[in-house]
Amino acid sequence: PPRAKRGEGDLAESFQEGFYNPSCMSNFALLKDLIQPAKTKIVLLVMDGLGGLPRASDDQTELEAANTPNLDRLAREGCLGQHYPVDIGITSGSGPGHLGLFGYDPVHYEIGRGVLEAVGIGFPLTGRDVCARGNFCSLDAQGNISDRRAGRIPTATCEALVKKINAANIKVADGVEIFVEPVQDYRFVLVMRGDGLRANIDETDPQRTGVPPLTAMARDAASERTAALFNSWIKQATAVIANDHPANGLTLRGFASDPALPKYKDVYGLKAGVIAVYPMYRGVSSLVGMDVIPHHAHTVAEEFETAATVWNDYDFLFIHVKYTDSRGEDGNFDAKAKVIEEVDAALPGLMALKPDVLVVTGDHSTPSQLKSHSWHPVPLMIWAPATVRRDRSESFGERACAHGGLGTIHAADIMPLALAHAGRLAKYGA
Fold it and tell me: HEC string of 54-121?
């Protein structure tokens, strides 16, 4: 059947009609019929922005240049490939990239970053809410953006700025409530709650410096009033922080409402949990029904230690590593390689838990040469010693993955493969 239009149908209708992307070959209705119970454990380890480009000095990517004896051993024991988070040639954001990894067609299930940030900090959304992810930024004397992230201010500074904005008691219209919450570093969440609000609005971040923030523009007539309300709030809030250098401005991204996604338990029959340091990734996971596992981890090793404490409680654990992406966006090749090495050094702690299936990949590529997300395919490894068909790979890197036995697939294909290797899919047909 053809792919349903965005916004059509609920979970029951999706199961009845089939969730089918001809390019991804992912069908929730089929999987629901084939799911069978098992005692196996699946781990999805995501190094955000993992994919890179070779540098001129030695023709190696960050992953290839990093010293990764443990990942290389798993590559020899497993099978490699590469995936496109959304589709060929498409540069993916973090939200769509993770939805693809979770098996959801990110074109069909489109969600904005505002919702991801809100649910990531545990904000209780309602059906009357429109959310936006905010960035504090630096503005020069002409009102142009000089730093899109305000020098990556610490979270304590973000909290103080949010407190100052909330103390100003900004009003935009009768019957519209405003909630501003700090997230992490330079990020905050803005939620407007009221009747008739719509989220089809373009972001105000121009994605470059030397120009002023954009005006929030509605993409349709139904969202025009909401866009005007956000613009009113932006004007008032910017005036409140005008003298708070370096964070004397702000931009809004990812206007969105709760998309009501199908849940992991219903789709895959899995009790799933997420271990992530950054709120946004806890957010996208909770939207698909994963439990957000509380922790105080700051390092990869501590995240793996957290996994050990809940190992018997879950069938599926998603573990997220952020700083591969951050260092790539900073343009710091060596620092990104060191994050990969940190993951590798901590990996024995995770493997000591004896997962049946381990998937190692990223949600998109972030080459340090580009200082941004890119459209390049993402390295992928599936380690499942009981069932994997090993290829000839000797190490975990982009070139090895390009020639690996899994081939080049879409991200939404990964979950069915993980389920199959975990013995959680029955035979189809007689």
Answer: CCCCCCCCHHHHCCCHHHHHHHHHCEEEEEECCCCCCCCCHHHHHHHHCCCCCCCCCCCHHHHHHHHC
SS3 204: coil
In terms of DSSP bridges, do strands 357-361 and 42-47 run parallel, antiparallel, or are they unpaired? parallel
CA 236 to chain centre: 31
d(CA 53, CA 369): 7
Given a contact cutoff of 8 angstroms between Cβ atoms, the answer to whether 180 and 162 are in contact is: yes
| Structure-block tokens of residue 267 | 């789709």
pLDDT, averaged across the chain: 92
Q: How confident is the model at residue 258 (pLDDT cuts 50, 70, 90)?
A: confident
Q: In the predicted model, is pLDDT for residue 11 greater than 90?
A: no
pLDDT bracket for residue 10 (50, 70, 90): very low
Instruction: Summarize the confidence of residues 320-340 as an average pLDDT.
Output: 97
CA proximity to 246, closest of 380, 350, 138: 138
- pTM here? 0.79
Nearest to 427 by CA among 103, 39, 40, 36: 36
Q: What is the pLDDT of residues 59-89, one digit of tens each?
A: 999 999 999 999 999 999 999 999 999 999 9
What integer pLDDT is reported at residue 18 of this predicted model?
Answer: 37
Spatial distance between the Cα atoms of 300 and 120, rounded to a whole number of angstroms:
19
Concatenated DSSP letters of 247-293: --EEEEEEEE----PPPHHHHH---EEEE-SSHHHHHHHHHTT-EE-
Q: Burial letters for 9-39: b for 16+ Cβ neighbours within 10 Å, e otherwise?
A: eeeeebbebebbbebbebbbbbbbebbeebe
Residue 41's SS3 state is coil
Phi first, then psi: what are they for 22, rounded to 5°? -55, -30
Give the separation between CA 14 and CA 95, rounded to whole angstroms.
Answer: 21
Radius of gyration of the chain (CA): 22
